[in-house]
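Re: the 489-residue chain
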Amino acid sequence: MCSPLLQEPAPMPENAALPQPLHDALLQLLGPAGLLTAASDIDPFCIDWRALYHGKCAAVLRPANTEECAKAVALCNQHNVPMVPQGGNTSMVGGATPDDTGKAVVISTTRMTRIHDIDHADLTITVEAGVTLKAAQDAAAKEGLLLPLSISSEGSADIGGILATNAGGNNTVRYGNARELALGLEAVMPDGNVLNLMRKLRKDNTGYALRQLLVGSEGTLGIITQAIIQLQPAPRSRETALCAVADAKGALDLFAAFRKQDPSAIQAFEFMSGTSMALVNKLIEGAPLPLSEPAPAYALVELGSPRGDDSLRSLMEDVLGTALEDGLVTDAVLAESEAQRQSLWMIREEHAEAQKRAGASVKNDVSVPLAAIPTFIDEATKACEALIPGIRVAPFGHIGDGNIHFNLVQPEGADPKAFLAQDHAMMDTVAAIVRKLGGSFSAEHGVGQLKTYMMPEWRGGAELETMRRIKNALDPKNLMNPGKIFPAA
């Protein structure tokens, strides 16, 4: 028997202002710095990074610690006020943006920025949810350690949001995504109770893995407030190369060549299409192509090791030498310094920004089995070019773990609004091919509010019903990030 549909949040006054008793209680709890109600203060929290969603909210709550967050959530629950958890607000799918009713409050963790502990024995870092990934990385690096998570928005994305979306990024091929790296969590549940799962244990077989349930839940089950993240010894040697290849199959064959020699040495392996690279070279200052001429596709290879010898250089040169002789690679540049390495990575990291500057774009964050990547890119490119003549198909991404950002940029000179009006047609065209190949329509960005309509077809039946039952059990009023993940009734 199916459980009832998620309840709609209880109605609020027409002006969507906070009820006066709730406003006064929150002001006393959080202080003026923790309760924002002026339009000029709250507007930035109501627009997503891509500017696709322009929501409204009654207030922005900025608790300074877990205790304040828990009390604020309990107050909102008592008054039936919907809550939208928000970290760095870097979601690609509108996952942290309120709807346009103005009934919700945004609960921002940006004031929760303490780094509590770096443990060299357990190789962990304990941080609050509002610590940016870059700040956590820098803190680990000062101790000679590595926080393996690496994403393009690491300067603004924070730990809470990264865990809530189970972010992956560049180093997933070696270290896994956020779910694999999170040892412990603390979270405020929808009723204001604090769930303390802050345990530095690799083995803990005592019931359900609640930590894993919260990671990737996109703020629909609670607000992550603290986390224990696994670290690694910092690489003492690293080798990075940008390679020109014929196509995605060439990039995948190059990956296989490195993996055959030493899979443990591969720290990152990224794919970039010629179209996407050209946009970076044209639109991003200081990012020219460091090769002799443009290529149809590129692979960015990074090897890393805690050893300080020359073995990685030899491995890189041996594999690339053979690949050049065989014609698998037509050109390559190896970083000769840390500055050159950073320059190569900047080229890769600026793909999303370059596409944003090129006009409206539709992002398809998909994954397929590795062997299916060339077929997917070929078929999806042809299908999208047939759908919209002149479209710029600009895929790039983490080919080593099967995650391709199959992004579609408007034709030059086209009307952005008219292009985005066809977003579902484009997404469905790509998704049909992904599904045929046994993939997923969201590899690491999540569902948010952009892709909820896909859930019944892809995750319907018992799977979606089980998700609904969990949501209903933990958040029976449907107050925590309503409108995300689950399709409208």
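The longest helix spans residues 311-326.
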